[in-house]
Design brief:
heterodimer; A: alpha+beta; two-stranded antiparallel sheet; 9 helices; B: about 425 residues; two-stranded antiparallel ribbon; about 10% strand
């Protein structure tokens, strides 16, 4: 998965966890609250109800690498209970079993794995379904990317994943300048560096990209009406994403026409040898001879 | 003809190639360049069409003009389809424009045969070269013309992530009948050429890594050869000829073993407008294609042999059961193998249980190091008791004899009795 930055609040949570564990505070005595300003990009912190002072001289707290990775991902989850669940796991790793995470039948491990999976899926879908729009499309036919070509995108992720996904886009779209707006934080790449910015509650207004009609043409043409499988499509591209995908406008019409188009193809009489050149006449003869031999 | 019209024709013409994979290439990105593009790890499906297929690549033909007359193909010379041709520049521009909007992972370019195989191959390579010259680091899959010269095959792999030559039909006879200009010998000859380039590149990569490990400070002296890092693949059309599943899977096995194929795609022959007379009137059921993929998977990842799936003792008619997946079908033919004790069985035995996949088997092996597994644990391991139940035993679960002892388990399973009973 992406080696992006951990979500905001994660570093503060880690410090608190270390302090609480050293102070020996059991999970039911710690209350984790989130200051939910700006939907988590800024100012979200996790605090213990009775924050113990940083311990001096207590046994250092070492968490297995696998737990730190899991926690960094689960911390992106939108569920406010994530901090408390992660602390429970940290507590049990420290005082019960260091190999807690290797026990897939444990209910807490299952909950955390489910949350991790949900975040990973969200990250994967974001990489797939973000659609950039050119702000100032280049009208020429030239191939080279003009420097400073501007793009914007709008996406609505389920979790706090912008800071995880933005580095992926920076590595991929290095030669472009782009801004990615989401309600849970935004990201800006200017060709040199990546800035994480405040979220944006709704889609910023702007003209449609003149390239979208070409993309929709491609989408309509690559579809094979003889193999209609709407459920398979919806399983991988759930309806909630459709409103931000330009090609999704064509889905209904394609489904409605599919049956008719297929019947037409099957009922059409076999093609007469139309435009038969000298060469393909020879081919036809060879085929006839082979067939005769087979029979 | 404008770009919209060309795209309509040349995307429509390309949809009969099943592959849209963009995974398995070398890891790279565009950091430090003024270009765009990255690949690596798993591919990304940027959209799905209502046929349920993933849209990962811009999959088009450079042209659908073609000298050949393959009966199953919409672009054969004797088809009345509208024709179009892109310039190399147009394809490159379209790829970059789509890529910058995050519509695609890259390009899958194929072509009808025009003028000559070498000329056609040169045109395909030209597009890839143009894209790489623009610092495009996304994925490129080039369809390779089997009759093209070895020099062109060698060049294609320098720009492409994946190369593919379609074997089209499982036997030489079918090929003669339906694709008279193609020959099994030239197809296999070119596949062998690709295989040796790919292996050579992989060796040189390994050699370099070894050098870096043993002497990290020294700069590697030998230039590393890069050639189609995502390997080669091929496609077989199912249902356009009389060959049965046993013949198809045997041919497929030979392709994996002989040419180190990454994937063999099966494409159920799809009705096309203005079909040729030599073709069957009706398409095969799409289930047949699905069952072939399942069988292919069992052979590659579940240690099933070809004989176990479709040997003459197992399936005398050489066809897979359309109503049952091949693993369940095997289980019903080998009821003596079950029940499998989930707390003791080896990985190989676990993989034989219907309803347990590679992930499920791994989870079982991991979980039972800490505890004795019971029926209640299966849910958490994401294993369905409904599917696996009749084939496994646990301290608090014995399989219902009704299925394993039944004189006709297949009937029982298909008619739902077992499903209901195991729920009780």
């Amino acid at each position: 998965m992406t080696a992006g930055q951990p979500p905001p609040g994660f570093a503060a949570w880690r410090t608190q966890v270390r302090n609480c564990l050293q102070a020996g505070l059991p999970p039911d005595q710690v209350h984790w609250s989130c200051g939910d300003s700006q939907l988590g990009l800024f100012g979200e912190t996790a605090t213990g109800s009775a924050p113990p002072p940083p311990a001096s001289g207590g046994r250092p707290v070492n968490m297995p690498r696998a737990f730190v990775d899991l926690a960094a991902t689960v911390a992106c989850h939108q569920d406010p209970q994530r901090w408390g669940l992660l602390y429970q796991a940290a507590w049990r790793i420290r005082f019960e079993s260091r190999s807690l995470l290797s026990q897939p039948a444990d209910p807490l491990v299952q909950t955390l794995e489910r949350m991790q999976k949900s975040v990973h899926r969200d990250i994967h879908k974001m990489k797939a379904f973000v659609r950039f729009q050119a702000v100032t499309p280049d009208p020429s036919d030239a191939l080279d990317t003009p420097t400073g070509e501007e793009y914007v995108a709008w996406f609505e992720p389920d979790h706090f994943i912008v800071q995880r996904v933005a580095p992926f886009f920076a590595r991929r779209f290095t030669g472009m300048h782009w801004t990615l707006f989401t309600p849970r934080g935004s990201a800006r790449w200017d060709g040199q560096s990546l800035q994480l910015e405040r979220g944006c509650p709704e889609r910023p207004a702007g003209p449609a990209d003149p390239l979208e009609p070409l993309w929709r043409t491609y989408y309509r043409s690559i579809f094979n009406p003889a193999r209609l499988k709407v459920d398979a499509m919806c399983a991988e591209m759930p309806r909630k994403y459709w409103k931000n995908l330009p090609e999704a406008q064509d889905i209904q019409a394609l489904i409605l026409q599919a049956n008719h188009r297929t019947c037409q193809m099957i009922e059409q009489p076999p093609s007469p040898r139309w435009r038969v050149s000298e060469r393909s006449r020879k081919v036809a003869e060879t085929q006839a001879i082979t067939r005769a031999r087979e029979e | 003809m404008d770009l919209q019209a060309k795209l309509t024709i040349l995307a429509d013409a390309a949809k009969y190639d099943a592959s849209c994979a963009s995974s398995g290439s070398s890891r790279r990105d565009s950091r430090g360049t003024q270009g765009i593009g990255s690949t690596g790890g798993m591919g990304i499906c940027h959209s799905y069409a209502p046929d349920g297929r993933c849209i990962s690549l811009l999959k088009i033909l450079l042209t659908n003009f073609c000298l050949y007359d393959c009966s199953y193909c919409i672009n054969r010379i004797s088809s009345p389809v509208r024709r179009a041709r892109f310039s190399s520049q147009e394809v490159a521009r379209l790829t970059l424009d789509f890529y910058k909007r995050n519509y695609i992972e890259g390009l899958f370019l194929s072509s009808g045969i025009i003028q000559s195989p070498d000329y056609t191959m040169e045109q395909l390579i030209d597009v890839a070269r143009l894209l790489r010259a623009q610092h495009f680091r996304g994925y490129i899959h080039l369809k390779t013309i089997p009759e093209a010269s070895p020099e062109l095959l060698a060049e294609a792999g320098r720009y492409a992530d994946r190369l593919s030559i379609n074997v089209e039909l499982p036997s030489e006879t079918s090929l003669r009948k339906l694709a008279p200009e193609k020959s099994a010998r030239s197809i296999q000859g070119s596949m062998a050429v690709l295989r040796s380039h790919i292996q050579e590149a992989r060796e040189s990569q390994k050699h370099r890594e070894r050098n870096i490990r043993s002497a990290p400070a020294a700069k590697p002296r030998v230039a590393v050869k890069s050639y189609a890092p995502a390997g080669q693949s091929t496609q077989m059309i199912v249902g356009a000829d009389q060959e049965n599943d046993a013949r198809i899977l045997t041919a497929s096995r030979a392709l994996y073993d002989g040419f180190a194929m990454r994937r063999v795609y099966y494409s159920a022959f799809s009705p096309i407008p203005n079909a040729a007379e030599a073709l069957p009137a009706k398409p095969p059921p799409l289930w047949r294609e699905h069952r072939l993929y399942q069988a292919d998977w069992l052979m590659r990842f579940y240690q099933f042999s070809l004989e176990e799936i479709i040997g003459p003792d197992e399936r005398p008619d050489g066809m897979l059961d359309l109503e049952l997946d091949p693993k369940l079908a095997w289980a019903l033919r080998h009821r003596g193998f079950f029940p499998v004790d989930l707390n003791r069985a080896s990985r190989e035995a676990l993989l034989r249980v219907p309803g347990i996949g590679t992930v499920g088997a791994r989870r079982i092996l991991q979980a039972r190091r800490f505890q004795t597994l019971r029926a209640g644990d299966l849910r958490g391991l994401r294993i369905s008791l409904r599917k696996a139940g009749p084939f496994i035993e646990l301290p608090d679960h014995q399989p219902d004899d009704a299925l394993l002892q039944s004189p006709d388990p297949r009937q029982r399973l298909l008619h739902g009795e077992v499903r209901q009973m195991s729920l009780l």
